[in-house]
Design goal:
This protein is mainly α. The chain has six helices and no strands. The longest helix has about 70 residues. The chain has one domain. Helix 1 runs antiparallel to helix 2, helix 1 crosses helix 3 and helix 4 runs antiparallel to helix 6. The radius of gyration is 34 Å and the shape is rod-shaped. About 75% of the residues lie in helices and about 0% in strands.
C-alpha cells in the first residue's frame, strides 16, 4: 500500500506557531462556513415549506367556503320544511288531505342531515409531518388552532342534529304507516297514513320535530359564523405570502 507523507521541513527546522494558528483558522473557517451554508439551506427549505403549507391552507379554505355555502343553502331549505311541518294542524289530522300533508313534510325533511366536512388535507400534513413548527407567525398558528376548534364544535353540533332527527323518526314510526309511501305517490291527497289517533303519540312526534328544528337552526347559525371566520382567515393568510 502506498503511504503518503506530509511534506517534511528542512532538517532541524520546526513548524512555526503562526503556521499552526493559520492551519487551525483555515479548518475552523471551513467548518464554520459549511455549518452556515447548511443553516441557510435549511432556512430556505423551511421557508419554502412554510409558504407551501400556507398556500395549501388557503386552497383548502376556499373549498370549505364553497361547501359551507352549499350546506347552509340545503339546511335553510330543511329549516323552512320543518317550520311548515310543525304548522300542520294537529286538530285536523282526521282529514285525509291533512294527514297526507304531514306525511309529505315528514318524508321530505326528517330522513337526512346536511353534514359539513372540511377539506383537511393541509391540516393533516401539518399534524403528521410536524409542519406546525415551520410556521413562525404565532398569530397564524392561533388562527389555525381556532379554525380546528370551530370544526370540532360544528361536528358536535351536527351530531346533536342527527340525534334529534333520529328521535323524530322514531316517533314518526308510532303514528304513520311509512310503508304506504308507494300508494301515496299515486294518491298524494287521499291516502290514509295515520295508524293512530293517540294524542300523546301525535304530540310527541310534533314535539320531537320542534326539537329537531331548534337543533338544525343552531347548526345553521354555527355554519354561518364559521363561513365568516373562514373568509376572514383566507384574507389574513393571503397577506402573509
Amino acid at each position: 500500500m502506498e503511504v503518503h507523507h506530509h511534506p517534511e521541513l528542512p532538517h532541524g527546522e520546526k513548524k512555526r506557531f503562526k503556521e499552526y494558528v493559520l492551519e487551525f483558522l483555515m479548518i475552523f473557517l471551513a467548518v464554520t462556513m459549511g455549518f452556515i451554508a447548511e443553516n441557510i439551506r435549511e432556512h430556505l427549505s423551511d421557508n419554502a415549506k412554510e409558504s407551501e403549507y400556507i398556500t395549501g391552507m388557503i386552497k383548502n379554505l376556499g373549498v370549505d367556503t364553497i361547501r359551507l355555502k352549499e350546506v347552509i343553502k340545503e339546511t335553510d331549505v330543511q329549516i323552512k320544511g320543518f317550520d311548515s311541518l310543525i304548522n300542520v294542524s294537529k286538530n285536523k289530522l282526521v282529514e285525509i288531505p291533512v294527514q297526507d300533508s304531514l306525511y309529505l313534510m315528514t318524508s321530505r325533511y326528517i330522513f337526512y342531515a346536511n353534514d359539513f366536512k372540511n377539506d383537511d388535507i393541509t391540516l393533516t400534513q401539518l399534524r403528521n409531518a410536524g409542519g406546525y413548527r415551520l410556521i413562525k407567525d404565532n398569530n397564524v398558528l392561533d388562527s389555525i388552532a381556532e379554525y380546528e376548534s370551530r370544526i370540532k364544535d360544528i361536528d358536535d353540533e351536527f351530531n346533536g342534529v342527527v340525534r334529534s332527527l333520529e328521535k323524530a323518526r322514531d316517533n314518526a314510526n308510532f303514528i304513520f304507516d311509512l310503508h304506504a309511501g308507494h300508494v301515496f305517490k299515486f294518491h298524494p291527497t287521499s291516502t290514509p297514513l295515520l295508524i293512530t289517533n293517540d294524542k300523546v303519540k301525535i304530540y310527541n312526534y310534533y314535539n320531537s320535530c320542534w326539537y329537531a328544528l331548534l337543533a338544525i337552526d343552531g347548526y345553521e347559525h354555527m355554519l354561518k359564523e364559521h363561513l365568516k371566520y373562514t373568509t376572514h382567515l383566507i384574507a389574513y393568510l393571503k397577506k402573509g405570502i
